[in-house]
Amino acid sequence: xxxxxFQKRRERQLLRLLLPALIxxxxxxxxxxxxxxxxxxxxxxxxxxxxxxxxxxxxxxYFRLFSDxxxxxxxxxxxxxxxxxxxxxxxxxxxxxxxxxxxxxxxGSVFGAAILxxxxxxxxxAGFMWISMLAGGDHATLSxxxxxxxxxxxxxxxxxxxxxxxxxxxxxxxxxxxxLLTAGLSAVPTEVYEAARMDGANPRQMFMRITLPxxxxxxxxxxxxxxxxxxxxxxxxxxxxxxxxxxxxxxxSVYIYNQSFTNFQLGYGAAGAVVALVVSLALGIAYVRSLKxxx
Length: 295
Prior knowledge:
Structural class: mainly alpha
Number of domains: 1
CATH superfamily: MetI-like
CATH architecture: Orthogonal Bundle
Number of helices: 15
Helix content: over 70%
Number of strands: 0
CATH topology: MetI-like fold
Largest sheet: none
Shape: flat
């Protein structure tokens, strides 16, 4: 009985310690999410009669959303964008950078600083910086470099819009991937590598049978964070292309913005936001259940 009383008192103390963190969490995240669910079931708008007298419409916005080809296109574009930039681009290059830093290459500090530098620039600033590189046809910086080298140029954001947006987001996220994966590599005991080397294991075998299995929790954590954060990327894509041309770069966040603040349909845009939230939660649960890794 005394032990149970002690446990309950300890739990109350922990709850009091967590309360300061729970209050902003509830105010800034939980309440807006619940309000978005309510808003998605209304015809709330920024103009017209719905702005003055919004009414409850139930699931009408969701029926409309799921019959909208533009919405399904935004989900497909988001899928390609997430796989290309977060899961493939950032992870692969970040892992290579982490391995290079672990080997203590010449100029490693400069190399690491160069990879981390993109994180210092906000999304919109990075977007406008890359516009000068990619937009403007033969006046773009990248085109001028290719012309000087005698190579063909292109109107990059018009000819290869999704690839360019994916590339820029990969550039911005390599630093985060490198930091997390470097921490995971540092946590692998050196004694394990020494024992494997004494048993005659080559570098490939040590990487496949020691490094990757022992780094599974770190890789899982990175994949979860990068996937969810990439789904919510807005400023970079909007600054670069505003979802164009022809919806080829209209990721789900840009679609929600366009419906809410370009077409002035807040309720309909909120329905898209709720679907994006559900997709993010589903992906998080899928990562946990499929990988079965404790974090």
